[in-house]
Fold this sequence. Notes:
mainly beta, two-stranded antiparallel ribbon
Amino acid sequence: MPDPIFSGLEDGRYLPSGHARGPWDPSGALHGGATAALLTRALERLAPPTTGLAIAHLDFQLVRAIPLVPLELTAEVEHPGRRVLRLAAALRTDQVVAQGRALCLLPVPDSVAALPEPEPDVLTPGPQEAKPVRLDPTGANESFGATAIEIRFLTGDFGPGPSAVWTRLRRPLVADEEPSPLMRAAAAADLGNGIGSALRWEQYLFINADLSIALWRPPRGEWIGVRARTLLGAGGVALAASVLYDEAGAFGRGQQSLLVQART
Length: 264
């Protein structure tokens, strides 16, 4: 099995590998997708399936640049309930560096007539027909985009302009564990600002300070599709908006608020 993105330590902390590295800080900081996936793992483990509740919304706050050092991960039930449950998780060094929250709700009753999905279209063609891209074809430089997640473009590229991709994790999130579809979705949703950029990578930074994911059904399988675009204008705040897919169709939406600056 390939090396994991995170290694669990004996004291309960997690050590990021080079596969968790993000694109914005050359000195080394975690990718938002790796961070969101690890927080999702903690939130999922806190929501036992016996409750019958489904995770309907995930919200991640990337408080500050997260170094590649041992990280303390904690999770708790923030507000218990039989119909509405709120969960919280946090990553810490000597201070909080990222936070995640999950909203869990009772599913729609089976007796309710089904309505058409908000995004009824299927992302086509499928992942097998999409165009693979390697950010580092040599594989010598470890990073989340280059060595942790596989990206296959359907339309567009890394900007500028809207794009659609299929993605799947290349390696375990944590050793000896198969990532859940929801962990895979959290990792993929954080790619929206990159694949849907309205600006050129070599000229601008567009760093997301958060990530929100709203679900109308659970994701399925290992392949997650993302169709993304960025909305921005002078004097406002940039927003990367995504529709999330699996091979059965759309299952949710993602959005990221972006810090936009010219590169110096």
